[in-house]
Design a protein that fits this description.
The complex is a heterodimer.
Chain A: E1 5-7, E2 10-13, E3 19-24, E4 31-37, E5 44-50, E6 53-57, E7 64-68, E8 74-78, E9 87-95, E10 99-104, E11 108-112
Parallel strand pairs in A: 2-11
Antiparallel strand pairs in A: 1-3, 3-8, 4-5, 4-9, 5-6, 7-8, 9-10, 9-11
Chain B: E1 3-5, E2 10-14, E3 19-21, E4 24-26, E5 32-39, E6 46-52, E7 59-61, E8 64-69, E9 74-79, E10 88-96, E11 105-106, E12 110-115
Parallel strand pairs in B: 2-12
Antiparallel strand pairs in B: 1-4, 3-9, 5-6, 5-10, 7-8, 8-9, 10-11, 10-12
The chains are: A mainly beta, B mainly beta.
């Protein structure tokens, strides 16, 4: 148990729709990162939020956006869903006080049909 | 740009065998971190270990050991006396030292199957 929880665990959406995924970080962690993991591949960095500000972004289009709230929980929003967006979305939290390691939630499995 | 290569896509062993998972990385950063994560079928990535670039001391934790060699840019992971519960996908990852938290670059993973 990492203390990082994601909701929902599974989701099915239609191409063109919008989706919001949620992440509750481990207590005391002020950094949240989001990763996309396609089937059979390693996770790919989407973006990171540190103290409510975006702190780096991977090679993902602007239709992937996010938020971090004052309690350090976070949302990942994806607009205009495409079939290739089908993947496991992983949230990770960390704090510099405890070191650079990130602790992951169980993920949200998104299927776009 | 950073890159992590895990050349072994799948490994299958029989219980009690030793197994080594290879990881080679590329980075231009002088200070960086290396990680190993385990991903069981449930999907959650479980943190196993972190090494700092300036600390090449090998580490042993129970049946797990890690060999970090900066000269060959490798960070290999050995499981001694493997068990069925070790079956999972293992990821090696790399991050530069940065304010706010790690931005992990993962390898493609090695699927380890331990047969009884």
């Amino acid at each position: 148990e990492t203390g990082v929880t994601q909701s929902p665990t599974h989701l099915i959406k239609t191409r063109g729709q919008q989706v919001t995924l949620r992440c509750s970080s481990q207590s005391g962690h002020n950094t949240v990162s989001w990763y996309q993991q396609a089937l059979g591949q390693g996770p790919q960095f989407i973006f990171q939020y540190y103290r409510e500000e975006e702190n780096g972004r991977g090679n993902f289009p602007p239709r992937f956006s996010g938020l971090q709230f004052p309690n350090y929980s976070s949302e990942l929003n994806v607009n205009a869903l495409e079939l290739d967006d089908s993947a496991l979305y992983l949230c990770a939290s960390s704090t510099e006080v405890q070191g650079p390691e990130a602790f992951f939630g169980q993920g949200t499995r998104l299927t776009v049909v | 740009a950073q890159k992590v290569t895990q050349a072994q896509t799948e490994i299958s062993v029989v219980e009690k065998e030793d197994v080594t998972l290879d990881c080679v990385y590329e980075t231009r950063d002088t200070t960086y971190y290396l990680f190993w994560y385990k991903q069981p079928p449930s999907g959650e990535l479980v943190f196993l270990i972190r090494r700092n670039s300036f600390d090449e001391q090998n580490e042993i934790s129970g049946r797990y050991s890690w060999n970090f060699q900066k000269s060959t840019s490798s960070f290999n992971f050995t499981i001694t006396a493997s068990q069925v519960v070790d079956s999972a996908v293992y990821f090696c990852a790399l991050s530069e030292a940065r304010i706010g938290g790690s931005r992990l670059t993962f390898g493609e993973g090695t699927q380890l199957t331990v047969n009884p």
